[in-house]
Write a structure and sequence with these properties.
With 87 residues, the protein is of the alpha+beta class. The chain has one domain: Arc Repressor Mutant, subunit A (Orthogonal Bundle). It contains 3 helices and 5 strands. The strands form 2 sheets. The protein has a 3-stranded antiparallel sheet. It has a two-stranded antiparallel ribbon with strand order 1-5. It is globular and about 40 Å long.
């Protein structure tokens, strides 16, 4: 058990010029996400968020606290549209 959020395996998605287009087969809705949320979508795989925040901070050269806050906001957005799950 990893414990962190991950993409729902049934959500179809594609990245186009940095934005992610998600198609939720449960609801039939299509979501366009961009920026930090699109990057977060591509990275989440069930690992704990603290390790992911460190990766984001290193990759983008930003403070760990800023990376963690951005990550939490992105996860909340993805959770609100129902496309993530936790194991």
């Amino acid at each position: 058990m990893k414990g962190g959020p991950c993409r729902r395996s049934d959500v179809n998605w594609v990245v186009i010029e940095g934005d992610a287009v998600l198609c939720d087969p449960r609801t039939g809705e299509v979501h366009l996400i961009s920026g930090a949320t699109a990057a977060t979508w591509q990275l989440i795989d069930g690992e704990p968020l603290d390790g992911l925040a460190e990766l984001v901070a290193d990759e983008f050269g930003i403070d760990l606290a800023v990376a963690a806050a951005d990550l939490a906001e992105s996860i909340a957005q993805l959770d609100s549209i129902g496309v993530i799950e936790r194991h």
